[in-house]
TrEMBL record:
Keywords from the named record: Pyridoxal phosphate
HAMAP family: PLP_homeostasis
CDD domains noted in UniProt: PLPDE_III_YBL036c_like
InterPro entries (alphabetical): Ala_racemase_N, PLP-binding_barrel, PyrdxlP_homeostasis
Cofactor(s) this protein cannot do without: pyridoxal 5'-phosphate
Keyword Signal: no
Similarity-based family: Belongs to the pyridoxal phosphate-binding protein YggS/PROSC family.
Function recorded in the entry: Pyridoxal 5'-phosphate (PLP)-binding protein, which is involved in PLP homeostasis.
Domain Alanine racemase N-terminal: 7-220
Gene Ontology terms for molecular function: pyridoxal phosphate binding
Name of the featured protein: Pyridoxal phosphate homeostasis protein
Entries under Gene3D superfamilies matching the protein: Alanine racemase
Origin organism lineage: Bacteria, Pseudomonadati, Bacteroidota, Chitinophagia, Chitinophagales
Amino acid sequence: MVNTEAYKNLKEELDQKGVTLVAVSKIKPVSDIQKLYDLGQRDFGENYVQELVEKQPQLPSDMRWHFIGHLQSNKVKYIAPFVHLIHGVDSQKLLKEINKQAVKLDRVIPVLLQVYIAREESKFGLDAAELEALLTAEETAGFRNIRIEGLMGMASFTSNTDAVRAEFNTLKGLAERWASHITENIQLKTLSFGMSGDYTIAIEEGSNMVRIGSLLFGARN
Ligand SMILES: *Cc1c(COP(=O)(O)O)cnc(C)c1O
């Protein structure tokens, strides 16, 4: 069930603040996505390659598809032809594969680097040192068919709003630290953090792209 009222209110609020809304449509049917499209929404986020590849041809071609899940190198080729922005890049290996597929397609693929900010155990995301290594690597400079446009992160799943705020603040701090590191394929300007439960805090802490699912499409089973 699409909550059109929530969508309109949220869209108005985010537009005023200059924040991009990525509507996270994982597990939700194409008919729900079409409903938001008809209201003007264009940016949609999906987590699973196979699901995205199935949905994409069934929906209008001017959709901007964001890949927000954990991407395996061997699956990059399936989404490379049409993906608008890949959010969760957290290794040199993955960056290399995205560049390789982009070269084949003669296109540039924009990406965000995922930074690990939560206190919870997670396999995904770079720490500050790994981020530095990736941004300054000679190999990265040679990836002419990718563009590193910003950072992405996820806060801990907790009701402790101070902890969430502190985690987002860490991400913002890293973005500021690297903001002046501008090269041919690096310019960090997009900050993708904030979901249904914490987007207000995220925006207060400097997010300019939020990824929102359940608030718009209802809870997932
Ligand atoms: C599912 C998901 C979201 C959206 O979560 P909601 O709480 O439903 O808004 C955002 N980002 C990522 C990476 C997700 O996997």
